[in-house]
Amino acid sequence: MKSAVTLCLFLLSVLTSEAQNYRDEIITKEFIPAMRSTRTMTPENYQRIKGLLEKLDHDYGYEADWHYKLLNWSFYHSDIAHFKSHLEILTEQYGLDASHFSGHEYFYEAIFEGELKAWFKPMYLTKSAIWHDKNFSKLSDIRKLKELIAREEAVSNHLIKVSSDDSFTSEASVALMKIRGEVYFSLLTELYKICRKYDVFPTGKNFGLLHGDFNRLIINNFSTTDNLERTWLLLEPFFKKAYLQNQLDYSFYRSYDIYNYMHFDYQRFGLIERKDVPIVPSEDEDLTQKIPVKNAFETEKVRKEMGWP
């Protein structure tokens, strides 16, 4: 049980290998390492990430989720004009919800109690009202999605705590793994209902900022053998549509390949090598070996549809 939870967290932190198009490359090799790092972003790195983000905006459309993540560093590096401009855009056009701020942001005190309060309060009330008026019909589903993110986080944190108990027996671990799979798939079906209702996989670009994502929920379902394929059958059509419209990167496809190899010793799309799989290798194992694909014709067809080389 502990290994399954640990592996999920590990995969969330390392999905940064060879990408399939320019947008994938920038997100996986630049944005994820820079914005998930616990280290302070240097001024030089901030300007570089900012420039890359502006290029993606130009080429692929406004990257709301990444602009939201960059707000903290814009304020930290005193790029106040950029900070204000994108906070306004994110509030009016993507439904940024200030109640979701943690209180640990570099800008938090400034906008609520400090030097930016006089600007932020009227801006936020005005722009937020515009967003709510234009998106009133889907506010209930946005709330459901935000609650779903919070519930998944609560379940995962509880499972980490339980699985870390040294008194937890192997028999109990097997039973809990089964329950774990059922709980995660139940949460996933709630996500699916909203995907089907709107014919979209919700991201900041197409649905509004959710102040979180479904990466861990999906990977937790991939990690359960019984859930892997049924998760894919439910959500892949929405992954594909969002990817082709530049609303998702290719990480779910790569994760699917990794878990197909872990569960069944093959991959589906040819996106990984053995070195990409976070399983301790044997002493004589060649980490550069190619992992076989299940169906070469299917692989070629999908790669062509997705525009992958």
Query: Radius of gyration in whole Å, from Cα?
Result: 21 Å
Question: So what's the overall shape?
Answer: globular
Mean pLDDT: 91
Q: Roughly how many Å apart are the termini?
A: 37 Å
Tally of strands: 0
Question: Approximately what portion of the residues adopt beta-strand conformation?
Answer: under 5%
Q: Main beta sheet: strand number and arrangement?
A: none
| Helix share bin | 55-70%
Structural class: mainly alpha
Q: How many domains would you count in the coordinates?
A: 2
Tally of alpha and pi helices? 14
Contiguous runs where pLDDT drops below 50 for at least 5 residues: 12-17
Series of H and E elements:
HHHHHHHHHHHHHH
